[in-house]
Amino acid sequence: MRAGVIGVGHLGQHHARIYSELQDIESVGIYDSDKNRAHEIAEKNGCQVYDNLDELLLNSDLLSIASPTKSHYEYSKYCVEHGKHVLVEKPICSTLDDARKIVDLVEKSGVKFQVGHIERFNPAIMALSSILLRPIFIEANRLAPFTPRGSDVPVVYDIMIHDIDIILSLVQSKVKEINAVGVPILTNDIDIANAKIEFENGALANITSSRISLKRERKIRFFQKDMYISLDYQEKKVRVVRKNPQVDEIMKDVMAGKRDANIFELFITEELPVIEKEPLKAEIESFVNSIKTNTRPIVNAQDGYEALRVAQKIIENIEQNRKSLDLM
């Protein structure tokens, strides 16, 4: 198969690098409005630069779209209409209407379409496959220092959407209610936000995202019957705390005053084995494999649409609350 990359900025350059390393990929083409940048990345990775999009599509079977979010719709639409498989960076589009159009177009075309919600391929998240997850409460914190990249959209679309996608994939229930707050600090868009989400199955999620933090943190915690799971995206660690099967007998003695309560006796703690792998490489390999095997991409167009839909509802709720609090 022949791969193409549209946009070789911060993320696109790595798409080009990884495609050039894969045995299933015969050639890699690049298209970018910045010709100097395109030639620089092409030289590093042995790629071919194309001066226009039509030439790139003519020489590609599958494409990564790593351009600015506002261009995702037009590029995705053009590629799908030309029968090309697409991996588009998150969010799927800049508007929900455009995302819906892409979902409908993909369903009619039959091409494989994957959205780059890369945390699905974080080794720590992948390690959760050994656990039967039925969370009733989820707490996610994603904090980062300010950088200009991504600051043209609210932090909900830039950062929080990662946790929205993860939570939707794990809870597997429709959203019932959202209550969110957020404020702009350094930009004209929301820079820090918190969203409380209630699902129809009773599960609750509390998500905080900031791009103006003094530290970098990416953690998520799951609470469910007899179990607590703490996951660190950065450190790629997963800790599982389970109730000791002997806890009832221990508690009888504790309540009778025969022994002191010892937290290390009440619970059993274990670290899940995590297989280290570059998330973006795992994501791209999964995309290529879905094409080869004609199977559903891990994060398809509908998944990307749902994550964007919830993100938009959070933004709308933030704006409503800001108006009611006279913070506009």
Tally of DSSP β-strands: 14
**Poorly predicted runs:** none
Helix content: 25-40%
Run of helices and strands: EHEHEHEHEHEHEHEEEEEEHHEHH
What's the mean pLDDT score? 93
Shape: globular
Report the CATH C-level class of the largest domain.
Alpha Beta
Structural class: alpha/beta
The proportion of residues in beta strands is 25-35%
CATH superfamily of the largest domain: Dihydrodipicolinate Reductase, domain 2
> Rounded to an integer, what's the Rg over CA atoms?
22 Å
Lateral arrangement of strands in the main beta sheet: 8-9-10-7-11-12-13-14
**The number of domains:** 2
N- and C-termini, Cα separation: 51 Å
Secondary structure elements and pairings:
Blueprint: E1 2-6, H1 12-21, E2 27-31, H2 35-45, E3 48-49, H3 53-58, E4 62-65, H4 72-81, E5 85-89, H5 96-109, E6 113-116, H6 123-127, E7 137-143, H7 155-171, E8 175-183, E9 192-199, E10 204-210, E11 217-224, E12 227-232, E13 237-243, H8 247-255, H9 263-266, E14 267-271, H10 279-293, H11 301-324
Parallel strand pairs: 1-2, 1-4, 2-3, 4-5, 5-6, 7-10
Antiparallel strand pairs: 7-11, 8-9, 9-10, 11-12, 12-13, 13-14
Helix pairs in contact: 1-2, 4-5, 5-11, 7-11
Task: Characterize the structure shown.
This protein is α/β, with parallel strands linked by helices. The chain folds into 2 domains: 123 residues, Rossmann fold; 172 residues, Dihydrodipicolinate Reductase, domain 2. The protein contains 11 helices and 14 strands. It has an 8-stranded mixed β-sheet. Strands 3-2-1-4-5-6 form a 6-stranded parallel β-sheet, sandwiched between helices. Helix 4 packs parallel to helix 5. It is globular. The chain starts with a strand and ends with a helix. The model has no long low-confidence stretch (mean pLDDT 93).
